[in-house]
Predict the structure.
Amino acid sequence: CECLHMCLEVYQSFMGSSATCPGATFAALPRMTRNSANLSTEAQGSRNIRNDGYRKAAFQIASLWLLVMGVPITIAAVKSHGAIAEPAAAFWCCLLALPFVTIPICLLTCHVKTDLGLVSVEVAELCAVWLLWNTHLCTYATFMLPFLLASFFAGHSYVDVTINYFVFVTFVAAPITLSTGILKMISGKLKWRWGWRQWISTGILCGAIAVCMLAANFVYRRHALSALVCTSITFYVYVIFTYLPTYPSETGPEVSGRRHWKQFEEAMAPVWALAISYLRLRVIDDGSPGEVPFVAGKATILALHPHGMIPYTGGLMTFTKGWTDRYPSTQPHYLTDSMTHLVPGMRDVVQWLGSREVSSTSVTGVLSEGKACILVPGGQAEMCCTRSWGSDVYFHNGHKGFIRMAMKNNARLVPVLSMGEWELMDNVYWPKMQSLSRTLIGFPIPLIPYGAFFLPIPRRPTHGLTVIVGRPVEFPIRADPSPQEVEDVCAQYFETLAA
């Protein structure tokens, strides 16, 4: 414990050092100070007690994980008679199946559904933010579960389970996500239409890869083929019914929003509440008393800044009490990056919550319905400049499409500032490689976000997370605005944001 506290002190002193972000096009706001000297003694004591509670909660979760994980590994080691392959495979299987999915869901369910007090609030909050911020990782970890289940009935070894898992992810699940993402990016750059035929062509290509993989396993690993075949067929049925539009003439669910599931949104209310409590998230208005930035039935674009690493704040803020009290009849659609609508599991959650893909077609569709949408204009440019240390907050003012869409559709344009978003997470810093990968495939690599405990969990901001909804920016209505008009409104918009 002493070593851990020393490491934390060194880490905190390092995080307080000054740093700069090369390539940022706009640095507008001074960062909120991380020094807590201005807090009262009572507030500091309360915060320290709270932080100790989260350290204790993390220790409890890790202890439970090691305890549960040690049983199958020990059994595998005893049965292997000294061989290393089987215990190592058991460790990998348990690593994916237990800490990523099973243990957080069980602890969260126990806290929400029972009143026994077995799971503390801190443990439940850590589980909630872990599952929300790592939905994509949890999905791929979940793919391990059917192979583990099959091993109990068919007697497969942990080595067979591990091989089946990697074969499935590499040749069945990953090709759908990667090929679709790359082809959609190419279609967007070349102004090609992405529709039913492109989906079918991608499916045939990925299906051919899967068939070749299954044929190779039939020759070399026939004894463990049944679980791989059943899981692959189930996955492709899921893809057909969730990825494709209902009719060829329709757009996909990532554009139409037809998969919005209100009952799911309401059922997950306890999870939203735990995440909001963990972040100490609140929403306030920057306008004068009685002035409402946007109203129901009026097309509105709410532009959230800064992007941060994973801007889930844009969705969570609509579930806070400050938001529901201020805008009770308005539930905006959160427009997210196209990759979030391609990853299995993650895409289902965001689409059930009413999220759509951030594209001109989606924005036009939402605004034409007289609804509000939330988007993050900074995108990956701001994500690559996100730092939890330093003295400035960086904004990217090179993206002007949202301003053009607001002018064309006679929509209100409301700047939204998330104070403390930059403190939540950091990314591995490799600017040249990340810039090159963004140019080639439209995505920064490496992308390894980390936060609390050096894990992909957001930190608790020093002063909480405050979302400020600004005043609407006034601009002329133009069916086809000129580049100069867009540039003028863009300058006015960022001046309003900086103020």
Observations:
- Residues 192 and 405 are 20 Å apart (CA to CA).
- Residues 1-49 have pLDDT under 50 and may be disordered.
- Strands lie at 26-30, 281-285, 300-305, 333-336, 356-357, 372-375, 392-395, 412-419, 465-469.
